[in-house]
Specification:
The complex is a heterodimer of chains A (107) and B (414). Chain A has 107 residues and is of the alpha+beta class. Chain A has one domain: 2-Layer Sandwich (Folate-binding fold), CATH 3.30.2270.10. Chain A is built from two helices and six strands. The longest helix of chain A has 10 residues. Chain B has 414 residues and is α/β, with parallel strands linked by helices. Helices cover 29% and strands 25% of the residues of chain B. In chain B, a hairpin with a 5-residue loop joins β17 and β18. In chain B, α2 runs parallel beside α7, α2 crosses α10 and α3 crosses α10. The radius of gyration of chain B is 21 Å and the shape is globular. Chain B starts with 5 loop residues before the first helix and ends in a 14-residue tail after the last helix. The C terminus of chain B is likely disordered. The chains are: A alpha+beta (107), B alpha/beta (414). Chains A and B meet through β3 and α1 of A and α8 and β12 of B.
Chain lengths: 107, 414
């Protein structure tokens, strides 16, 4: 079973305790943006076969949102980090690159 | 191609069954085809078949990274129904269901279509209201469905407990001409027919890149060399986003694992398909006697083709109240497939941002039932540039806000 450590409360939570929230670090395009940007923001997803940066909510725990870096192929977790960030912290990136040197980042 | 018939079986019986020819050829890829279809699952092969049968295009290669029908085509629970709420869905799924009726005869290959009836249980008042609405919608769409009461449910499926304290059966949406088919046979039948038309089915050939020139597709790079093409169809279900990334665009799709399991084989006890959406489970009995049970999807992005234990537990636990006999059964096998989920839970049959690339994906948790209709529409779109069946399912519907919202009408746990 997938286990993620919630960076907010520190609990190592099992999958059943968590609610997935899809791709992380989406840049919001709101009023005034072009239709293309708005459509891409709303619907288009990277959905990679490999490293995925994603949102999770500790639904049956502290209730807070956080982010995780995980492989969608092996379910290996590279780290979790607070949701109030624009990109993954250096230590998480280092752990990703250790296993996936070719990884080009989250965009 | 030698036709299969009772006489062929008799002849082969006298020849010790040594004379059967291979059902399809496995040629080396040629340098160029008019049309290349990526993905030799049901949808890909059906697309190729109807390109040849309906539009006379036979310079077609179907390339597959694994083996034929080894993806979701071989991993689903084989249910066929067309009792959808929205008009575009009902149209394409009913087209598929009606093609299934005569598919064995048409392909000269027994796909074991068994119109045993599909029953979608209403176990809450909301579901009961929702399904009555679907029956009315189906009446207008020309899809034969019926609202039946709990007593009729019990008659049709005696092993069911209709008085459960938590999930009583209030009635069901009954589609008498729905049912099941042999999933592998559907892929094999289409493959045999495609091969007979001179199309190449190339297995163990993974696409590693998509070549474009001036915004137009020119071919694919594969593990077995370069293949040029005029038009390219991407029909790869859960891996659609991966192929789209090779062509340089993104899709409104997320991939997740959907799983199913089967019990030990037992004597015939259930001759209908039952879907219980409130408890996220659906079940039928296979010809071998196994109870085939489908569950919900994992909620997170996943390419692992395996399921998770707690989802099995959830599904089986919930089904036991309605099917008490399940509690005495051993479960034999469990497996997962990668499904491509769109936001409105409806498929994408569409042109793509790259000229010459066509998409058939997003079937999510319910693609098997649609195979013939999907292939029919996709072939028409690729051959003529327009298909009435496919038109509502274009990629631009997301941008335009024309969703075909089946999240509540279709299937189970999305």
């Amino acid at each position: 079973m997938l286990t993620l450590t919630c960076p907010c409360c520190g609990v190592a939570a099992e999958e059943t305790e968590l609610a997935p929230g899809g791709q992380a670090h989406l840049r919001r395009f709101g009023p005034g943006s072009s239709d293309d940007d708005f459509t891409a923001y709303l619907f288009d997803r990277a959905n990679p076969r490999g490293v995925h940066l994603e949102r999770w909510r500790h639904a049956y725990g502290c209730g807070k949102w956080f982010l995780a870096a995980r492989s969608t192929v092996t379910l290996e977790v590279f780290g979790t980090y607070p949701a109030q960030t624009r990109e993954p912290p250096a230590d998480v990136v280092a752990r990703i690159r250790q296993r996936h040197p070719e990884w080009e980042g989250s965009r | 191609m030698k036709r299969y018939s009772v006489f062929a079986v008799a002849r082969q019986a006298f020849a010790h069954h040594q004379g059967w020819e291979k059902a399809w050829a496995s040629p080396e890829p040629r340098a160029r085809y008019d049309v290349v279809i990526v993905g030799a699952g049901g949808h890909g092969l059906a697309t190729a078949y109807y390109l040849g049968r309906n539009h006379g295009i036979t310079s077609v290669a179907v390339i597959e990274k694994g083996w034929l029908g080894g993806g979701n085509t071989g991993r689903n629970t084989t249910i066929i129904r067309s009792n959808y709420l929205q008009d575009p869905s009902a149209a394409i799924y009913e087209k598929a269901r009606s093609l299934y009726e005569t598919l064995s005869q048409e392909l000269n290959y027994n796909v074991m279509f068994s119109p045993r009836g599909v029953m979608m249980l209403a176990q809450t008042e909301h579901e009961a209201r929702g399904y009555r609405r679907t029956v009315h919608a189906n009446l207008l769409q020309g899809v034969e469905t019926e609202w039946i009461g709990p007593q009729r449910v019990k008659e049709l499926c005696p092993i069911m407990n209709i008085d459960g304290p938590r999930y009583p059966v209030l009635g069901a949406l009954w589609q008498p001409r729905g049912g099941t088919a042999r999933h592998d046979a559907v892929a094999w039948g289409y493959a045999r027919a495609c091969s007979d038309m001179g199309m190449d089915i190339i297995q163990q050939c993974e696409v590693t890149g998509i070549r474009t020139e001036g915004g137009r597709v020119t071919g694919v790079s594969t593990t077995r060399g370069e293949i040029a093409c005029g038009r390219l169809g991407l029909v790869v279900a859960g891996h659609s986003s991966v192929l789209a990334a090779m062509a340089g665009f993104r899709l409104p799709i997320e991939s997740a694992a959907l799983q199913a399991l089967v019990s030990e084989p037992i004597k015939p006890c259930m001759d209908v398909v039952v879907m219980a959406n409130t408890v996220h489970g659906y079940m039928s009995q296979s010809d071998k006697g196994e109870m085939v049970i489908g569950g919900g999807t994992d909620g997170f992005n996943n390419y692992t083709q395996r399921g998770s234990w707690h989802h099995i537990e959830e599904t089986v636990r919930a089904l036991i109240e309605t099917f008490p006999m399940l509690s005495r059964l051993k479960m034999l096998r469990q497996w997962g497939g990668i499904v491509d989920m769109t936001g409105d839970r409806s498929p994408i049959i569409s042109r793509s941002p790259v000229e010459g690339i066509f998409l058939n994906c997003g079937w999510g948790t319910g693609g098997f039932k649609a195979i013939p209709g999907s292939g029919w529409a996709m072939a028409e779109l690729m051959a003529r540039g327009h298909s009435p069946l496919a038109a509502p399912f274009g990629l631009e519907r997301f941008r335009e806000g024309r969703f075909i919202d089946e999240s509540v009408a279709a299937g189970v746990a999305h």
